[in-house]
Amino acid sequence: MRNIALMPVTIGYAARLVAAAMLLALTACTTPDIASVEEPAAVPMTGQTNDPAPGFENVKVGSEEDFILNVGRRIYFAQDSAALDSVAKATLDSQAAWLNSNPNWLLKLQGFADDSGSASTMETLSQKRADAAMVYLASKGVDAGRMWAKGYGMDREVRDCEDRSCKVQNRRVVVNLRTQRDGV
Question: Which of 24, 34, 64, 156 has a CA 20 to 30 Å removed from the CA of 8?
Answer without folding.
Answer: 24
